[in-house]
Amino acid sequence: MDIGLIIALLALGAFVGFAAGLLGVGGGMIQVPFMTYILATQGFAPEYAVHVAIATSLATIMFTSLSSVRAHHKRGAVLWPVVALLAPGILIGSWVGPWIGAQMNSAALAGFFAIFVALSATQMLIDKKPAASRELPKAPGMFAAGGAIGTLAGLVGAGGGFVSVPFMTWCNVKIHNAVATSAALGFPIALAGTLSNVVQGWNAPGLPAGAFGFVYLPALAVISAASVITAPLGAKTAHSLPVKTLKKVFALMLYALAAYMAYHALK
Predict the structure, then answer these.
(1) Coil, strand or helix: which one is 212?
(2) How does strand 215-216 pair with strand 211-212?
(3) Which of 49, 62, 68, 106 could bridge 39 with an S-S bond, Cβ 3.0-4.6 Å?
(4) CA gap 196, 223 in Å, rounded
């Protein structure tokens, strides 16, 4: 890789890591569009640029998640019993998600996510209090929720925070705990999704040197190196913000993601 590409990927990794710590998102929905553009400028085949960007994004989330969750765990914010209940469904969904994405019309899929994410953002922005009696579902419901979160995250190469944080806050989980727990869920999402993308891309013709299936190892190394440094800074910032401010920041991030997905659905 030339120095210009390395600098671009380092900057991307630094921003993605901070976002992961701050909002409990893996940063994939930020990383994928930028990385797709970067890969296109480097002469990657157009039919593989998005696949490689999504797969590499999921792989970097493994490292970002570990760095972020360590910082949140030190503050006692991660709800590990919730992680244990959601993780089995997440592992299955994250493996299935990339496969489903290959079977669907990309414009329809992008439009679906735009609507879904915008509704999630609106729910958080208006700060409507959930019913006091509402709580997280029992084990079967958590398994189903984990499967849905994993499938959605695997489809778009994200850490799942854009789904899991609104879900948990809707069930009366405090926003700081929801963000921290979402960061922990990023690892099983990334692990299963990465393995799925490696298998699907294993025999794909024309991939560049350094590709492991659809995962582009040089970009993975550079982005991960930057993101693990900035993720704890994002986590520290999250715990210093009041609840209402953190919810507004998260909602605005979701609106930006919805706008991006709508653009791709309509173009």
Answers:
(1) strand
(2) antiparallel
(3) 49
(4) 20
CA 45 to CA 213: how far, in whole Å? Answer: 15
Separation between Cα atoms, residue 210 and residue 203, nearest integer Å: 14
Question: Which CA distances in Å does 5 have to 56, 101, 226?
Answer: 15, 28, 14
Quick one: the chain helix, strand, coil %, rounded to 5? 80, 0, 20
3-state SS, residue 81: helix
Where in the sequence is the domain holding 231, given as residue range(s)? 3-266
| pLDDT digits (tens), the chain, 267 positions | 678 888 888 988 888 788 767 765 656 666 777 777 777 777 776 667 777 888 888 888 888 778 778 878 888 889 999 999 999 999 999 888 888 876 766 577 667 767 877 877 786 677 666 676 788 889 999 999 999 988 888 877 776 777 888 889 888 888 889 888 988 888 888 888 889 889 888 887 777 788 888 898 988 999 888 888 887 887 788 777 776 777 677 778 778 877 877 886 786
E strand or H helix at 244, and its extent?
helix 243-266
Q: What is the pTM of this model?
A: 0.72
Q: Is 179 exposed, middle or buried (0-12, 13-18, 19+ CB in 10 A)?
A: buried
Tokens of 203: 């025999």
Domain count, the chain: 1
Residue type, 79: L
Can you read off the two tokens belonging to residue 148?
């849905």
